[in-house]
Amino acid sequence: MTAADATTRPFAWTRKHLLSLESLSAEELEFILDSAQSFREVSTRSIKKVPALRGRVVVNAFFEDSTRTRTSFSLAASRLSADIIDFSEKGSSVSKGETLVDTARNIEAMGVDVIVLRHRAAGAAEVLSRAVTCSVVNAGDGAHEHPTQGLLDLYTIRERFGKIAGLKVAIVGDIANSRVARSNLWGLKKLGAEVIFVGPPTLLPRAFESLGARCVHDFDSVVAEVDVINMLRVQFERIASSQFPSVREFTRLFGLHSERFARCKKDVFVMHPGPMNRGIEIASTIADGPNSGILTQVTNGLAVRMAVLYLVTGAAQ
Amino acid sequence: MSSILIQNGTILDPSQKLQQRADLLIDEGKIAGIGLNLGSADRVIDASGCFVTPGLIDIHVHFREPGDEEEETIASGAAAAVAGGFTTVCCMPNTKPPLDNEGQIEFVFREAQRIGLANVFPVGAITKGREGKELAEIGSMIQRGAIALSDDGVGIADASVMRKTLQYAKMFDACIMQHCEEPTLGGGAMHSGIVSTSLGLSGIPAEAEQLMISRDLLLNRTIGCRYHVQHISTAWSVELIRRAKRDRQTVTAEVSPHHLLLTDENCRGYDTNFKMNPPLRTAADVAACIEGIKDGTIDCLATDHAPHRAEEKELEFADAPMGIIGLECALALYIKALGEPGHIDWMKLIELMSTRPAQIVKLNRGTLAKGAAADVTVIDPNQSWKIDAGKFKSRSRNCPFQGWGVKGRARTTIVGGELKG
Q1: B201 contacts A122? CB cut-off 8 A
Q2: In chain B, how long is the greatest CA-to-CA distance?
Q3: CATH number for domain A147-297, candidates 2.160.20.60, 2.102.10.10, 3.20.10.10, 3.40.50.1370
Q4: What is the pLDDT of residues A249-261, one digit of tens each?
Q5: Nearest CA in chain B to A183
Q6: Residues B67-90: pLDDT tens digits?
Q7: A208 contacts B270? CB cut-off 8 A
């Protein structure tokens, strides 16, 4: 088989669910990114709508607060002409005496095609996918994965550099509790980037080395060599659990401030999954400066989520 | 009471180091003799191709009565026990309310007697309400027949309370069974390691278990109470006990079937039937537990039979309760984990499942000596079967071994000279 054969051979998307990036192949990741590229173009039209999912029903089932992810999914579904239902419920299923699976089966009984699930429990999307017959898209499950965030980060990096392989990407902050870090790790590794996790040992367990990340506790030791810096949001409640002593010390050691930024590569690409704590993990001048891809991430998130909804519903047919 | 003659089997009795083809006669609820030509009996059981062993004993089960009778009752638990070949079980006190006074101990005895299946010996709580603060009436519970003491489900976190426990229990020569988990390090959903990191689940580090074992061994060094480590799960825990035994400390330990056959890798997929406490550890920990059995560091096998409702086990992994049922498949699983790979022989297996557990709780059972209570299990070592929790006598179905093909099964269970299963 020649290289030409390989590129011309049609790739068939077969997955009914998007649960994690760990489970996807490099080929599948590339396919989603390529599909997102065609949907990106839709956003530039004066009529920003395609009929791809007309007559389909997408339910945003959010069991945890999230404004931007939910809005992004809603808008993505709407631009595909799907009907969107928002289902929000805070609190655990334990307290209300109904399991997540019960709730989801109820939603499904109303005749839905896709459940977009955000849940505080790791594994919630995977468990749900085994219990229902419709498609399940993981919009963040505990500290496990946030696959569409991972995909939009991949997309944004690829768009900026024209490639992912060979890049060095630092992801900084509370790695232990971050689903964004995990999805980025799997996606970036599969597409050939080097992933450097940066944080204190209390928020960066050594086990991540076994998963393929380079683990670093001294941010300054890597700032000059990385092409991308992805800053995670500081969770203030970690102070109470003594995972770091104070915001001030965290900012000093792991924040991206102007002094540290001055030692970065000139074309370093700065990212943040949002919402930002300005002046804490990232200085405003950097977040709003020319190296920042933060708003581009949000724009690309829409295209990536359109692609995901389109692909999983196609596979479910 | 009728007499029973078990013919053509192989008698296997670790208490007498006996392994021979012979018949076993039971009369008046006692072992009447082992040999050939023992005369006639009211009932004859053909045990061709089978082992005839002292009744199996499980010193760690949860029967949920009183409080959670929809999960298990003393009746359903006892039925599960005899179905699995167990003639005697010791039930843990973490019921609602807990077994922390003599009235509760009496309740379990009466209920077990009324049901009349397996021997059920209650373990009393160490502290009032299992809160780890004030000692329960240990003496009164022992006098009423509590077989041992434990706050199982949690360990005694406070070192001062634990020291008093060991001192006070020593007065009665009582066995203290400890669920070893330092609470400030525990509380997670699974073993802390590579798999938990990948799954995004909170971890219970191996040190949570090791820390409490170390502390207790230190406290007990000068006290010398009978101290028993429940459901051991980590390699270093085994080593701690090995060293303590070398120092002639009074310590014993048990291990459960799942800690010999499963690892934290099984938690991928978030199936809550793989969630238990202590959690499934690594392959190296499993190997160390097996080594501990071979060299005598670990004294006995115990299921930690822990029934839970399906609705509860359907919760998210982090929220679902810990524990799995074990009584009806334990024998076959021990054979798979220890017998089939050649780690131990049949004599050792029955010692671990009957003779040693009886000694740990000072029961005059686990033997086929003439005159002993006629608790006998007839085991067919060649019967191949598939584990199907749907067919279990237990009220619960939380079994991670569903569908496993296994070999070896109790064919007949005799308790006090009566055929029970």
Answers
A1: yes
A2: 66
A3: 3.40.50.1370
A4: 999 999 999 999 9
A5: B198
A6: 999 999 999 999 999 999 999 999
A7: no
Chain A residues in contact with B269 by the CB 8 A cut-off are 126
B217-255 pLDDT per residue, tens: 999 999 999 999 999 999 999 999 999 999 999 999 999
Query: What region does A173 belong to: left with phi over 0, alpha with psi -120 to 50, or beta?
Result: left
Which residue does chain B place closest to A145, by CA atoms?
A: B200
Mutate to test the interface with A, among B197, B271, B273 (most CBs of A within 10 A): B197
Q: Label the pairing between strands B376-386 and B405-415.
A: antiparallel
Q: Are residues B270 and A123, on separate chains, in Cβ contact within 8 Å?
A: yes
Which CATH superfamily hosts domain B4-51+373-419? Urease, subunit C, domain 1 (2.30.40.10)
Chain A residues with CB inside 8 Å of B317's CB? 121-123, 127
Return the CATH superfamily for domain B55-360. Metal-dependent hydrolases (3.20.20.140)
ipTM of the complex: 0.92
pTM: 0.94
Strand order in the sheet with A57-62: A83-88, A57-62, A114-119, A135-141
Candidate from B197, B311, B316 with C-beta closest to A127: B316
CB contact under 8 A, A100 and B199: no
Q: Show the tokens assigned to A172.
A: 């900084």
Residues A206 and A3: their CA atoms lie apart, in Å, by 39
Query: Which of left, alpha, beta for B398 (phi over 0: left; psi -120 to 50: alpha)?
Result: beta
